[in-house]
Design goal:
Elements: H1 2-16, E1 21-29, H2 35-44, E2 49-51, E3 58-60, E4 81-90, H3 93-103, H4 106-115, H5 125-143, E5 146-149, H6 153-164, H7 191-197, H8 200-212
Parallel strand pairs: 1-3, 1-4, 2-3, 4-5
Helix pairs in contact: 3-5, 5-8
């Protein structure tokens, strides 16, 4: 009950105030990259962060990768918030693209297309998902001081601790399921399928970004 009271008060404060918020931390990236999982871990480390909703220390949210004047849900617009630390989280592109393909609602796509002119109405859904993964991550990493793979969260916490000059040690990392925000199970997606379905230049860009982030493209 106290959680929902706080959430209501926080949201009311954001709606009623146009002042720039000063928060400690933002973790952003693509939708379906595990930001809810990371929010739980950061809270277990002692940070008061929300998932897509602004808490006293900040939040994890894919919406905040872009500089926007309004969000379809969740936190105050990114243009109204200043963060001391911004981190960029990535996840295996095949898993993200497949999950976005079946899970993102129309309001998500409306927001995405508003900020990514590279996505065309005539694109197939798979092309839109691949463009989203590539261009949204480009935006996020430009804002961030550090990019990490959610699969390497333990290493990432050590680096973030160093950058923030604050110890981030979860009490029990194994207590948090990595599929904590799983919706409909996505189909298996392969690089071969993408090679057949994407324009060559986009396929090349996605593969090169995947390699740069440390993922296999075999």
């Amino acid at each position: 009950m106290c959680y929902y009271i706080f959430l209501f008060l926080a949201l009311s404060s954001q709606l009623c105030s146009q002042e720039v918020l000063d928060r400690y931390i933002l973790v952003t990236g693509c939708a379906r990259s595990g930001t809810r999982y990371t929010a739980y871990i950061l809270r277990d480390c002692g940070l008061d962060v929300g998932h897509e909703w602004m808490f006293p220390d900040g939040l994890t949210s894919w919406l905040m990768a872009t500089d926007c004047s309004e969000c379809p849900w969740g936190a105050a617009p990114s243009s109204n918030t200043k963060f001391q630390h911004i981190f960029h989280q990535v996840r295996d592109p095949l898993k993200v693209i497949a999950s976005v393909y079946i899970n993102e609602p129309p309001e998500s796509w409306e927001f995405i297309c508003l900020h990514l002119p590279q996505i065309k109405e005539t694109d197939t859904l798979l092309v839109k998902c691949a463009k989203y993964w590539y261009y949204w991550n480009l935006m996020a990493e430009k804002k961030a001081e550090y990019t990490f793979r959610v699969e390497d969260i333990e290493k990432a916490l050590r680096v973030m601790s160093f950058k923030m000059k604050r110890e981030l040690t979860p009490k029990d990392l194994s207590a948090f399921a990595k599929n904590i925000n799983t919706r409909e199970t996505p189909p298996d997606l392969t690089w071969g399928t993408l090679a057949e379905s994407l324009p060559y230049s986009l396929f090349y860009d996605v593969q090169m970004m995947a390699l740069r982030y440390g993922y296999s493209i075999d």
